[in-house]
Amino acid sequence: MTGFAPGDEVYGTAAAAFADCAAARPDRIAPKPAGLTFEEAATVPVSALTSLQAVRDKGRVREGQDVLITGAAGGVGTFAVQLAHAFGARVTAVASTPKVDAVRTLGADHVIDYTRQDFLAAPRRYDVIIDIAGNHGLRELRRALTPRGRLVITGGETNGVWLGGTDRQLRAHCCPRSPAGTWAPSYPPSTPTGCVT
Known about the structure:
By secondary structure, this protein is α/β, with parallel strands linked by helices. It has five helices and nine strands.
């Protein structure tokens, strides 16, 4: 392997990487920033890549679009807010009271405190909804989309007995709201951290 030496602290992505040791391609790892623990570094590839897939690849967020991000204060959400803002979208972020200011500093144009307001009760419609929180029904979310809007589901929070929460993605795929509107699931890769051996 070139670019790394035994003992180098690295982080990145690889298959079956939630272990003390994992095999990874050199183009899938990078030097771990000195100021981060291995645990902190492990969150970056999963959260950042999931957000990138949701915002750029599945949501196809473009300049001038209205984007709603639920779960905006979590690991995936904080990256999604920043990415959507960087792509020039008008970002509405949903978070709880203690996290409203933090989410606003990440680039959200509007922040809705879900403990005080139902973000889906307003008549506003969105070009893209990135549903990270997973605690609203598909019908509710679809009603908040523009006619050609995209719903991106990044997780499943239904605790499904058989499918462990992925039933939301399956229902969204099997029961599309219209030919114009669409949905797109986004799944993260496994994330290794550790030393090069």
